[in-house]
From TrEMBL, chains A, B:
Keywords: DNA-binding, Transcription, Transcription regulation. It holds the Pfam family HTH_IclR. InterPro entries: GAF-like_dom_sf, HTH_MetabolicPath_Reg, Tscrpt_reg_IclR_C, Tscrpt_reg_IclR_N, WH-like_DNA-bd_sf, WH_DNA-bd_sf. GO terms for molecular function: DNA binding; DNA-binding transcription factor activity. Signal peptide: none annotated. It comes from the Bacteria. Residues 2-61 form the HTH iclR-type domain. This is Transcriptional regulator, IclR family.
Amino acid sequence: MAQSIQRAINLIRLVAEHPLTLSEAADVLGVHKSTALRILQTLEAARFVRKTGAGTYVFGSGLIELSELALGSMDLRQFASAHLRVLQRQTGHTVHLAQLAGDEIVYVDKVDSPAFDAVKLPSRIGRAVSIYASAVGKVILAHLSQEERDRLLSHVTFERYTSTTFADRESLDAELTRVAERGWAIDDGEHDAYVMCVAAPIRDSRGQVIAAVSLTAIEVIASLDQLKEKLPLLLETSALISQELGFTPESSPAPSAS
Amino acid sequence: MAQSIQRAINLIRLVAEHPLTLSEAADVLGVHKSTALRILQTLEAARFVRKTGAGTYVFGSGLIELSELALGSMDLRQFASAHLRVLQRQTGHTVHLAQLAGDEIVYVDKVDSPAFDAVKLPSRIGRAVSIYASAVGKVILAHLSQEERDRLLSHVTFERYTSTTFADRESLDAELTRVAERGWAIDDGEHDAYVMCVAAPIRDSRGQVIAAVSLTAIEVIASLDQLKEKLPLLLETSALISQELGFTPESSPAPSAS
DNA sequence: AGCTACATTGCAATATACGCAACGCAAGGA
DNA sequence: TCCTTGCGTTGCGTATATTGCAATGTAGCT
């Protein structure tokens, strides 16, 4: 489709795995050395790769800087990081930090159980999450203004992933009302039947909900009820992160008890 | 130099900052829409960008996954992360985690002071550090085998950045002996005259030094002596991280007191 | 020194990526 | 309802940017 760009992408992939000399690069791509050189020089100018003293090409910092730029508010990650790790230890479950970015909700951090035999969830930093079939999505959606909510949902085509999915606007709105009232959301296998979550919102200094923390477990490991037992810890974590972002609880209406 | 690749890189940069429609992308690049489309499709196939429901292109997870792949042992970062953040709080100084990657030493994590008025150091995750003119470089070098040390230094061309730089192999070797004896290294403005560091080694389960933690401050903020006062905290941190990696202290010879 | 293996440059050929124009499609207004 | 407008998408001929070659430069090794 775009040969030279494809070659450049392949080269980046190779370099990310393992340092490469020019000749190796040319061999692997199946092109002449001069061709490989020109691609690498272009990538080098963008700092996507870097030339070492030994003459090999290695991964450059440009890509990492881009990732951080795209994940946006590094502030949020920096502030949240330590708290997420504490929460992981306290609960033993996988912790996610998701953020509203443009029209989507994207994972910006993830803390797995460090145990080697632990189940690694397929979620990945940088990936978008379903906005209506996830605990983080629902808890963020529930705390946005009506206009914002409409905007985010206007392009969505609802899909019933499992029997518990809220697959139409009416039932979703009813669920979001419940979520807004109690201040946290669950995911009862709404996207993947065996994946359970609880999520709590994170607010910035203006009191706006801009992100969410969640605890995730597959049902064999922990039932939804078992996850809910960790709610106090989860809510404490989200409150601490909000505080770090400059949020002062008294400046906003308290969630009504339901 | 490689026009289409350059255009692709520009597009990635734009998309990382802010979602883009096809027409906008074409306008900004100054090319026809069909050209922009083909570039975006290629990038999309590599998951470097992703198409949202609304038809805009946004940053894809492919780049982030690449970054994580390249930063290698996510294990180290996961294990170290919480400890680095604690150390930052305890000391108030910038904390770096640097790792031996191939022939070079690369920053894999960094924790700045969260204060808004704090000086942000120009170091960046993913960037290579001078191997002989940095505290992390020296402390890693000092604990490698002679062959490894020779290999890493064989391609180096020494440069006297400041008056304190160890700019030749003999004086560097003498310094490395001192570092190995006491188990930690300093950087007395050896690369940038006003930047001070102390660094301690991190060992994996085999007892091999594979990384280092450091505390950094510019001289106006803290003198080298003030940094040294934090040494107990630094050494505690590096010991804790090493333990998490499976290192058992008794299995290795204790550093001799100097 | 001479050899080998590598990176780099200049240049001509052509494959490749480009712009154009036509098409498809959806949203909004008359 | 139909027309208009603005978007993304496809096919195609052309020209330009990219390629491979061959020659040159450079460094490490015997």
